[in-house]
Amino acid sequence: MSYRLILTDIAEIFTAERDNLILTGGALLIAVDSAGIIIFVGKESDFEKDEPAFRQRYHHLVISAQNRIVYPGLIDAHTHILYAQTREDEYEKKARGVSYEQIAAEGGGILNSAEKTVLASFDDLYRESEKRLLQMISYGITTVEMKSGYALTPDGEIRLLQVADALRKKYPVTILSTFLGAHAYPVEFKENHTGYIDLLINEMLPRVKEETEASFVDVFCEKGYFSVAETERIFTAAKELGFGLKLHADEFNALGGTELAAQYGALSVDHLEAVTEQGIDAMKAAGVTPVVLPITSVFSRLPYAPAQKMIEAGLPVAFATDFNPGSSMSGFLPLAASLASTQLGVSVQDALLGITTHAAHAVGLGESHGKIVKGYQGDIVVMDAQSWMYPLYHMAHNHAWKIFIKGEQVDTTAQIELNGAECDERGATHATD
Fold first, then answer.
1. How confident is the model over 28-55, as pLDDT tens digits?
2. pTM of the model
3. What pLDDT, in 10s, does the model give residues 137-163?
4. What residue spans define the domains of the chain?
5. CA 55 to chain CA mean position, Å
6. 3-72+372-414 is classed in which CATH architecture?
7. CA trace torsion 155, 133, 83, 289 (10° rounding)
8. How many Å apart are CA 301 and CA 100, to the nearest integer?
9. Which of these, 155, 250, 406, 418, has the minimum number of CB atoms within 10 Å of its CB?
């Protein structure tokens, strides 16, 4: 057998496999083959029956977890990290109690970011997005969904998705990109929704298919943004081109978007703070994964989505960061799971399933990512803890000790150096603003 990694001395493993969720008892081992696939999970003593004296024979591949716990690589199924500049001014308004809707009505929100992003060069967008991505990897996130939607012009949206493509080529993390041109109506199309949707369907979607590696198309279906009928036009065109479908829905109002997404076979519906019984039933019947965003509720003072109610209905609820410059300026995915447990009434097990296997299903990777079982990709995070619950219990602290993608250890030194550069650069930038 050809190995890439033999991880030994593990105290506990959260496998994310429902029938065998937590392996305990210490002296556990995970082996990953040369293709990056997990081929053994269990007791070291059982592994040694087939591989006697493996520590000596494969000493260069053996890494000790030193009695720590292990999670599958974490999966963030909903982010908006492709953008230019930040929006601290809006954060200050939020602190004074100004609502999301008020900020948007005053020219802030999505259009604020779009105005900045459309003027940014590819290199500037790449550098800013790279810093965010590397920070997320350092938390143990090994799969990331990235949305466009902060340019709202054909060239600008393509440029954002090509940044995601470039990051995918450079880093081992699994990156899935989503075209969210239907994030808001640009100022010039404020009174001409049909014109913008025509632009989306006739120019943007074909170019996204031809010029980028985007997997999904998303729409913000909400009052003041895209109606259910408008969403359906975009979904129809996207489906014809072979894109997977995702949807922002039921964040402020239940318009029927969730039911539409179920009808069209969408992979996920995200937000769901205002989801109805009908929406829950529709998702369950169609096999749609709900993606709940607890950090957004805290950051933007929104109600929490009824995650526990959806779990009790039999839905595999995922939790994600919604990392974006306006309503959730955080890429710390374990915090979303901690909030799910402390604020949404979700068990610790379900919170962790929500950032591993359920999140994998939300991005179409449920058969290959998000579990520590034989046959799955060797994305593994060793957490500096002796109890599988501790990283969520000790919330808002990064417990990632070692990170492996396809069995290869990820060096986060570059991330630390980039963060230092970011601090210097942002300090200089803000001094001249």
1. 999 999 999 999 999 999 999 999 999 9
2. 0.94
3. 999 999 999 999 999 999 999 999 999
4. 3-72+372-414, 74-362
5. 36
6. Roll (2.30)
7. 80
8. 9
9. 155
